[in-house]
Every structure is written in structure tokens, then in C-alpha cells.
Amino acid sequence: MTSRQMDLPAPGQWTAVTPAGRSAIASIAADPAGVLLASDFDGTLAPIVDDPRDSRLHPRSRAALDALGSRLGQMAIVTGRGVDVVRGLGHFAEPGFSRLLVLGQYGQERWDEATQKQDVPPSPIAVRAAMADLKALLDDEAEPFRGVVLEDKGRAIGVHTRRATHPDEAFVALMEPVSSIAGAHGLTIEPGRHVIEVRSSTITKGDAMTSLVDQLGPRVVVMMGDDLGDLPAFSVVASLADRGITGIRVVASSREQPAVTEQADVVCDGTDGIASWLEAVVQAVGPTGVHAVGQD
């Protein structure tokens, strides 16, 4: 058993496991205007559900983000989902989220709530062709593929095994044929929690985080996530000390991805723990309004 495993939080709670984690809330409260708070969506702000179309923002996290929207310098959602989908599921087009950026498809798509500007490139033909091949692969619903769901993400496809009769077996059995289909169309794959994502770009959440930091010039950067796709972003955050920037990695722990928890400064018990941590941030920051990141 590792030291991180021994430090797992109580149900619905969170625990700091590094010096950066233990000083995280104080660092945020000391300079709210200089904070970039970024987060994954599914599994972090929204509980994982059997059908991805049913995903919803955790109500306590939503209330906390609403409160922080006028207090922190910048908030960002960095997700593999499309921008329009996440905006709809999160109901983000409201006053409390005026400083929210939504980066979809790992940063290929962008929505800025403050300016109402949207950049969503057209979906590549290769993704459409791969979707047809994946549908053909799953058409007969033979075991162990029965119950596998395809999610059309525009520039990517999610192959979800959570609803399969045997989710773990389906995931393992699908890796080879899905990889083959992706390769045939010049696409890449990203395994996750009972999902294999087929996408058109090699851009990672690490690239998205690097771009945000370079653009905004924050003094404190928080990244919250739960899955393998968040690891590149965590790597960028861990490297920010070399630039004199405080970096904090907050993980929604899960049994499916224990390796992700090993990267944490703060370990949260799933999405409930994330909500509790965000509420602690709200309490520490207080009601004072702030200016945007990078402004004095």
C-alpha cells in the first residue's frame, strides 16, 4: 500500500497529500485575482453515469463555481466533449459564469462566456468514416459487446463500455478492433474510465493548459481531473514551479484509475469530494470581487 492510498479521504471529503495541496486553499485566498481554476467535466464536476447524455453538473459544485465566477481571475472547463454539449449539460450560460472558458475536444474547440465568441472547427471526414465502421463492429451486439454505446462528439467518438453486460471485458476486447479502425482512418485513441475515445487530433489537455497559462499569466493554477486524459494537464501544472507559478493538482479519485490519484496534491472522494473542496475554496476566498487574471 502506498502513502497516497493510506491518505485517501473519507466518503464525500478531501485530503491534502503534498505541501502544495496543504497550502492550496491559502494560496488561492491570498490572490484570487491571479487564480486560473481549470477542470475536467465528466468524473470531476459531473458524476460518471451509464449514458453520457445523462451527465449533469454536480449541484454543489455548480453552486460553488457560480460563487467563484466573480471572485477568481479565470475559470476553465477543459474536456474531451464538444463545447456545445458541455455548455448544455452544465447550463453555463448564466451571469455567475462570465469568466468561464470552455475548451472542448482537448482544446480544439473554444467558447468564451465573457465575449460570447465560439471557435468550433468542422468535423473531419475521417471521424464520420470511423463512426460507420464502429457501428458495423457493434451491430450484431454479440458478447462481450452487448450494451456498448457510441457517443458522437463531432471531432471524436466515445466508445462507452459502462453499460455493457460485462464492462471490463468489453473494454479489453474492444481495444484491439477500435485501435485498428482508428489507425485505418489516421485517428488516435485515448483510453479512459470504461471509454475508448477515437479522435482526430493528438492535441492533449496539456497543450490546452499550456496555452491558457501563456495567454492569461496566472500566479496560481489549479487543475482538477480524474482520468488518464487529464495526466498531460497535471504534468504541465507540476512543471509551473519552474516559472514561479504555484501549481495545484486536485484529483477526483476512482477505483478505475488509481494511477491518476498518485499525481494529486489534493485527493477528493469522487465528485462529492470535489464539491466539498470547492466549497472550502468559496469559504476561504470570501465575498470580495476580483479583476481578471493578469490585471492589476
Structural class: alpha/beta
The overall average pLDDT, rounded, is 88
Number of DSSP E strands: 13
Strand order of the largest sheet: 1-13-12-11-2-3-4-5-6
How much of the sequence lies in strands comes to 15-25%
* Alpha plus pi helix count: 11
The helix fraction, in percent, is: 25-40%
Distance between the termini: 46 Å
Spans of 5+ residues with little confidence (pLDDT < 50)? 1-6, 289-296
Query: Could you give a short account of the major beta sheet?
Result: 9 strands, mixed
SSE pattern:
HEHHEHEHEEEHEEHEEHEHEHEH
Radius of gyration: 19 Å
So what's the overall shape?
Answer: globular
Structure, explained:
The chain has 296 residues and is α/β, with parallel strands linked by helices. The chain has eleven helices and 13 strands. A nine-stranded mixed sheet has the order 1-13-12-11-2-3-4-5-6, with helices on both faces. A four-stranded antiparallel sheet has the order 7-8-10-9, with helices on one face. Strand 11, helix 9 (231-239) and strand 12 form a beta-alpha-beta unit. Helix 3 runs parallel beside helix 11, helix 4 (59-68) runs parallel beside helix 11 and helix 6 (125-138) packs across helix 7. The longest helix has 18 residues, at 167-184. The radius of gyration is 19 Å and the shape is globular. 49% of the residues are buried.
